[in-house]
Amino acid sequence: xxxxxxxxxxxxEILIATDWTPQAMEDAARKALGGNRQRKWLPRLIxxxxxxxxxxxxxxxxxxxxxxxxxxxxxxxxxxDRERPLFDRxxxxxxxxxxxxxxxxxxxxxxxxxxxxxxWLNLSPRHLDWFADIEGYRSSAAAxxxxxxVQAWIPKRTGPPRLIEAPKQILKDLQRKILREILDPxxxxxxxxxxxxxxxxxxxAQLHAGEDMVITMDLKDFFPSVPxxxxxxxxxxxxxxxxxxxxxxxxxxxxxxASLFDNPPGDSGHDEETRRLFHQRHLPQGAPTSPALAxxxxxxxxGRLNGLAHCMEARYTRYGDDLAFSGDRDFAARSxxxxxxxxxxxxxxxxxxxxxKTRIMRQGDCQRITGLTVNSHxxxxxxxxxxxxxxxxxxxxxxxxxxxxxxxxxxxxxLDGRITWVENVNPPRGLRLRLMFMAVExx
Length: 443
Fold this sequence. Notes:
Blueprint: H1 3-16, H2 22-33, H3 41-52, H4 61-70, H5 72-75, H6 84-88, H7 114-120, H8 125-132, E1 149-154, E2 162-167, H9 169-183, H10 201-206, E3 213-220, H11 222-225, H12 228-237, H13 242-251, H14 272-279, H15 290-297, H16 299-311, E4 315-319, E5 322-327, H17 329-333, H18 335-348, E6 352-353, E7 359-362, E8 368-369, E9 372-373, H19 382-398, H20 411-425, H21 427-438
Antiparallel strand pairs: 1-2, 3-5, 3-6, 3-7, 4-5, 8-9
């Protein structure tokens, strides 16, 4: 190997072992090279790398080495005899599993390198790289059969359709193992109520019942907006060396094919920013690991919003991408300033607020959070209860087939689930519906 290629490979290993930001990369390279020289070529080299990098997330060492060799700053570099030994003295330390103090007592698998990771997942190293798909070759493949995910558009009541990216079975099993053994033991912020055992949209709504004012906000494109560097940072904090964290991040994320938005169903309404988020590496909605990783990456957001609410003697909860705040009359009087500060915090943490869905609800209004009314106590909205009651009544009189107007494949199970939901929120109302359900002749 020529000295130039050898130098490019070593520089690549230095640069990808730190945060994928220009300042962090420059600091790491200067520290490794040592000496007091200014090395004016380094900022230009890093600018060339970042300008040509295929993703906003660190690519493979081979790709970075290639970008270094292609850089004009590197091609014009002439290392003298005093500088060359600096590279010879630089050795990458053997990677070790080393969690930060906050996570030191967690019982998670201790993986120090790619081989450990492959054995833990019962894969060969080659298949581990194939499933992690760091370069996005599988995700961007034109043929759906070669991709790791199946994409589907799900219509919403309002707004553009939702994109579901469901991993195929083998990858889904790998993600479930990561979820059970690595992510589940990690605590999330207490304000998070979605995707947690013992928490639900009911517990999120209960904390806001009976307040003078309730404010709800919606985060736009929640899963794809989670910075992938934050996902990588979670695995690094848990103790995994850079290369292992990179593989785990790859297993839990994807990039959408370039053709995905060519023919979405109907008028998709997705703006350019949304398309950009999906075309870069992101957390897919449909992967078992995405909710847990999103909760962990939103921990700082939750902490800042909870602190803001506390300063105004208000309460805060988050259920997925739904933010809820409530407080007394003093909070209501300062709601305008509060909304501006809350939106600024969300933007600073990398999330955009969908202002069209922001709701400011006073006590005289119908205060609703996660589909539940919270004016005096949590309850199922009267309209939803009455509609379900009417369906059950008509099922008794005319038969269930006549009422299945949305063509549910298992209408009985569909109604049973809706009744169970009412039973959990309002047991007396749920009991009345259950008795009506039991009176239906299902045939």
